[in-house]
């Protein structure tokens, strides 16, 4: 007797596309979702089809594309699409579409789908700054969020024409990361950090040896960026101090400060911490730097080049703890490897006691773990002695677990 094993069902996503110039970015969102194993049905508005044709969406999704409720009537699409979806993402969500969703209007296939969906709904706005800041739009966004709809914070940058400001569609990779997070945890993005200022460091510092070379590490900055991204979408005002990162797009709704070496990072974090309610040190800071930087490139042809003499960099986390404001929460990160005598968690416990912070996130590194990868896992250690394992998942998922603890 042969037993057949059914393949696990692919998560079903409805990708709504509103009628704005940013509709062309929905193609990249669609490509990333389908390539990562999701079944995606695109539901554009008539306005969206003036920017991107149905044939493009059909070719990328492998599924038919309709905008009105009178196509394929026997399948009752206007009800079934929302009922069957595991997630609905609308990108871009125009001011008009936000208004319709807030007030329950249903004059096309997408707005009908929004009314019938009982799964998580992620609306990603894109519009001019004046439209985003208009009281009517702000009221519509507040109403949608009060019902549990996730309305993402838009990015700032170049808009249509010569205009620049808040209202730009976030990077497609960021939209996909938020979608993946909501599929894993439908409650991952509550607005529980509103009114709070958080300061986060990310990336790896580089300590110059000469004009060409440096001492550094393998940190990509992805975990720090995920922490900033999730905090901003949960309502916080975020200052992200970024050392070297792997060409990551800045998270939407975040104030970005770029630095190079450990001393620059310390100075920027001290400034940000002056007004921060929460400080998270996720950057991988070089422990040592050269005592002197060569003014010229050290060449292989140089005879007996001077040895590189190292000195310790400042302990930024310990300094932030020493200068903390009353009530300020401070979180550290520890990338650890075990050895013959001491395990990863033992190293983490010792570091938590030594640093004096409130929480420490411990990651085991090596063998494709933590550094230069999309996912992460670890433990959340608290000064009260509790230890919470964080299962393997996206770095945004780890970020959501940490923000849950901080919000509580």
From TrEMBL:
<keyword id="KW-0479">Metal-binding</keyword>
<comment type="similarity">
    <text>In the C-terminal section; belongs to the PPC synthetase family.</text>
</comment>
<comment type="pathway">
    <text>Cofactor biosynthesis; coenzyme A biosynthesis; CoA from (R)-pantothenate: step 3/5.</text>
</comment>
<dbReference type="GO" id="GO:0015937">
    <property type="term" value="P:coenzyme A biosynthetic process"/>
</dbReference>
<feature type="binding site">
    <location>
        <position position="297"/>
    </location>
    <ligand>
        <name>CTP</name>
    </ligand>
</feature>
<feature type="binding site">
    <location>
        <position position="287"/>
    </location>
    <ligand>
        <name>CTP</name>
    </ligand>
</feature>
<feature type="binding site">
    <location>
        <position position="351"/>
    </location>
    <ligand>
        <name>CTP</name>
    </ligand>
</feature>
<dbReference type="GO" id="GO:0015941">
    <property type="term" value="P:pantothenate catabolic process"/>
</dbReference>
<dbReference type="GO" id="GO:0010181">
    <property type="term" value="F:FMN binding"/>
</dbReference>
<dbReference type="InterPro" id="IPR007085">
    <property type="entry name" value="DNA/pantothenate-metab_flavo_C"/>
</dbReference>
<keyword id="KW-0288">FMN</keyword>
<dbReference type="InterPro" id="IPR005252">
    <property type="entry name" value="CoaBC"/>
</dbReference>
<comment type="function">
    <text>Catalyzes two sequential steps in the biosynthesis of coenzyme A. In the first step cysteine is conjugated to 4'-phosphopantothenate to form 4-phosphopantothenoylcysteine. In the second step the latter compound is decarboxylated to form 4'-phosphopantotheine.</text>
</comment>
<dbReference type="InterPro" id="IPR003382">
    <property type="entry name" value="Flavoprotein"/>
</dbReference>
<comment type="pathway">
    <text>Cofactor biosynthesis; coenzyme A biosynthesis; CoA from (R)-pantothenate: step 2/5.</text>
</comment>
<feature type="region of interest" description="Phosphopantothenate--cysteine ligase">
    <location>
        <begin position="198"/>
        <end position="408"/>
    </location>
</feature>
<keyword id="KW-0460">Magnesium</keyword>
<dbReference type="InterPro" id="IPR035929">
    <property type="entry name" value="CoaB-like_sf"/>
</dbReference>
<feature type="binding site">
    <location>
        <begin position="314"/>
        <end position="317"/>
    </location>
    <ligand>
        <name>CTP</name>
    </ligand>
</feature>
<feature type="region of interest" description="Phosphopantothenoylcysteine decarboxylase">
    <location>
        <begin position="1"/>
        <end position="197"/>
    </location>
</feature>
<dbReference type="InterPro" id="IPR036551">
    <property type="entry name" value="Flavin_trans-like"/>
</dbReference>
<protein>
    <recommendedName>
        <fullName>Coenzyme A biosynthesis bifunctional protein CoaBC</fullName>
        <ecNumber>4.1.1.36</ecNumber>
        <ecNumber>6.3.2.5</ecNumber>
    </recommendedName>
</protein>
<dbReference type="GO" id="GO:0071513">
    <property type="term" value="C:phosphopantothenoylcysteine decarboxylase complex"/>
</dbReference>
<keyword id="KW-0285">Flavoprotein</keyword>
<comment type="function">
    <text>Catalyzes two steps in the biosynthesis of coenzyme A. In the first step cysteine is conjugated to 4'-phosphopantothenate to form 4-phosphopantothenoylcysteine, in the latter compound is decarboxylated to form 4'-phosphopantotheine.</text>
</comment>
<feature type="domain" description="Flavoprotein">
    <location>
        <begin position="12"/>
        <end position="178"/>
    </location>
</feature>
<keyword id="KW-0456">Lyase</keyword>
<keyword id="KW-0511">Multifunctional enzyme</keyword>
<keyword id="KW-0436">Ligase</keyword>
<dbReference type="GO" id="GO:0046872">
    <property type="term" value="F:metal ion binding"/>
</dbReference>
<feature type="binding site">
    <location>
        <position position="355"/>
    </location>
    <ligand>
        <name>CTP</name>
    </ligand>
</feature>
<dbReference type="GO" id="GO:0004632">
    <property type="term" value="F:phosphopantothenate--cysteine ligase activity"/>
</dbReference>
<dbReference type="Pfam" id="PF04127">
    <property type="entry name" value="DFP"/>
</dbReference>
<feature type="domain" description="DNA/pantothenate metabolism flavoprotein C-terminal">
    <location>
        <begin position="193"/>
        <end position="407"/>
    </location>
</feature>
<keyword id="KW-0210">Decarboxylase</keyword>
<dbReference type="Pfam" id="PF02441">
    <property type="entry name" value="Flavoprotein"/>
</dbReference>
<feature type="binding site">
    <location>
        <position position="333"/>
    </location>
    <ligand>
        <name>CTP</name>
    </ligand>
</feature>
<comment type="similarity">
    <text>In the N-terminal section; belongs to the HFCD (homo-oligomeric flavin containing Cys decarboxylase) superfamily.</text>
</comment>
<dbReference type="GO" id="GO:0004633">
    <property type="term" value="F:phosphopantothenoylcysteine decarboxylase activity"/>
</dbReference>
